[in-house]
Structures are given as structure tokens and as C-alpha cells.
Amino acid sequence: MTAENIDEVVDGLAGIVREARRAGDRIGYFAALYRQVTVEVRTGIHAGLFEDGARMDRFDTLFGNRYFDAYDAWRRDRSGPRCWRQTFGLLADADTVIVQHLLLGVNAHINLDLALAAARTAPGEDIHALRHDFLLINDILGRVVLAVQDSVGDLSPFLSLLDQVGARTDERILDFSVRQSREEAWHNAVVLAGLNEAEQAATIERLDVRAAVLARLIARPGGVVRPALELIRRTENDDVPAVIRHLDHAMQRPSAR
Question: One Pfam family for this entry, by name (predicted)?
Fold first, then answer.
């Protein structure tokens, strides 16, 4: 599928979420998070939050189409970028917990796709004019991600306990991942915006390789994380359609706003 504007991105993501719920497919976990982020960005555009709403619509559409291209390639013949193949390849793995599936999607979409979408929205020196609106999305992402992590806490009692013990003195898992990744994505966007097509292709290849390595670390962490993940897995909800439905309504809960 190819979206022409942000409305079509929202509709495409909603369709993926609906189909995932029907099929019990974990691909709906990240799609539910991403749909809510896109809805919030669209709301911000309509409210005049961004310096250039039309540019932000183009940016979000390019960004969304990167996800749709990866999704379609995987469905068609298990092809696509390395990091997305790593992500989608774990969807049938019942040992991979909800938060890992979300982190895998965040990793691939931000560490690979976001910089390219920004660079193609504002090539060359124009990239610097995008910085203000790019950074505004951090606030939107932070709000949605924390709401979704609260949903994950409802679904994963042991993960919720770990968060309570931490008393939020550290950045929460998903929020920290998004913020760190977006800082690097902006740097990479500036680099990509100044390159020609061949140079961009080589840089994108390197970003994909790096994101694939990160995906493997997210999927199979070592140290004390591994037994903690096992406890999370044993206690969390394994009803895939119910999990998708819960995640997809995270922003509708009163505490999310």
C-alpha cells in the first residue's frame, strides 16, 4: 500500500491493526502504537502546532510509506530491510514479550526510516528548517509511548512491578528508547540530506545493518535481562487480539492525556 497523505497513513495503519486482531497476529502490537502516534501528529497539524503543517503532512506520509513498504515486502516474500526482517521474523515467537515487539518496531522505524523520511522531506540545507517541527514530535511520541507503556503494564504484571520498583527515577523503557533513537535520527537526517543518491544508498545500508544488530540485542539480551524477560513472559497476557485491542486504546484512557 502507498499513502498519499497522513489521513491515508492513519487508515492504512488502522487496517493493519484490524486485520492483526482478526488473525491474532502480533504485527498489530507496534502498528497499534504507531497508529496512535500518527493520529496525534495529525491532530497537531490541524491545530496549527507545527510551523509548516503541509510539510509535516508530507513528512509523516513519507515516514508511513517506509513502514508500509517494509510490511508489504515481508508479506510478499519475506524481503525488505534487514532490521524489519529481524522484527517481523519474531512475530510468531511466543517467547518474545510485548515490550520487545514494541521496541523492535521502534528500533527499525526510527533508527532506519525516520532519518530518510526527514532528509527526503527537506533535502540539502532545507533540513535545518525542519528541526523545530521534528523536535515537536518528541513531545507527541513521549505522550503516546508512556500511555502505551501503561497499557503494557496492565498486560504484564511483572513488568509493571519493575517499573514501580524503579519509581520512574530512570526514563521508562519505551520512552528512553524513542528519545535516544530520535536524537540519532536527527543527526543522520542532516547527514543524509547533504548526500547524493548513491551516497544516501550506502549510508542507508549502514543504518540498516546497525539497526539489525540492535534488533538482535533487543530480541536476545544477555545478563540479568534474560531471566527478567522470562518472568515477564510467564505473567503477561498471551491473548494476542486482546493485547492489540488494549494497546490500540491506550490514548483513550483518562490518564493518557
Answer: DUF5995
Query: Of 27-31, 103-107, 148-152, which one has max mean pLDDT?
Result: 27-31
Look at the block and give the residue holding cell 543504518.
207
Are 109 and 27 in contact by the 8 Å Cβ rule? The answer is: no
Q: What is the pLDDT of residue 162?
A: 46
Residue 128, number of CB atoms within 10 A of its CB: 11
Residue 232 forms part of a structural domain: yes
Query: d(Cα 139, Cα 13) in Å, to the nearest integer?
Result: 21
Question: Range of 174's domain?
Answer: 6-256
Within 10 angstroms of residue 250's Cβ, the number of other Cβ atoms is: 22
Whether residue 1 is contained in a domain is answered as no
Distance CA 242, CA 196 (A): 46
27-46 vs 131-155: helix axis angle to the nearest 10?
Answer: 140
- Do the Cβ atoms of 89 and 80 come closer than 8 Å? no
Report residue 184's pLDDT band, with 50, 70 and 90 as the boundaries.
confident
56 assigned to some structural domain: yes
Q: Are 253 and 121 in contact (CB under 8 A)?
A: no
pTM above 0.85, yes or no: yes
Residue 89 lies in a domain: yes
Q: Taking Cα atoms as reference points, which of 28, 76, 94, 42 lies closest to residue 237?
A: 94
Query: What distance in Å separates the CA atoms of residue 78 and residue 84, rounded to the nearest whole number?
Result: 10
